[in-house]
Predict the 3D structure of the following.
Amino acid sequence: MGTKESLGRGSVQFMTAGTGVRHSEHNLSQDKPLRFIQTWITPSRNNLPPNYGSSVGDEKMRWNQWQHLVSSVDNKDSKATVQINQDCNIYSAELELSKTITIPVSEGRMAYIIALEGSVKVNDVVIERHDAAEITPSSSTVTGAIDVTAVAVEKAEHGKEVAHVLLFEMQNVPGAGRGDL
């Protein structure tokens, strides 16, 4: 595809390997560390054509609220800027201390949340920096919605004190997932 780019905080890069691609990532900076989350999501279909794209993050859209970053190509009602070939939604939020936001989780759905910076309380469970939790319908924390509260913040590279989280919302498949929580 021949694409080269540098992405900043809150940006999303996506790729469908499809029938085959060559891909590499590296830090071009000599003095700043590279920090990113790489997630592999199995597509809903095989033999898709290779595809690549990105979306630049918007700090205002994720400040004390959920920013819908990724959704399914089949979800025509979504305003997410990145569309993937899977029934999966990805949200990001940066929360100030003590701020609570809620996200609905419909019946038959589950969530996976990662604390990137700071710590958050997910309903009654604290998730600290770099921790994650799988939230399934059988867990005691799902009641149709998930409350996320910032309980500790840290100074991010943009200068604000935040608890930064990513949340993946998807179909619950019994027996799938981590299984360790």
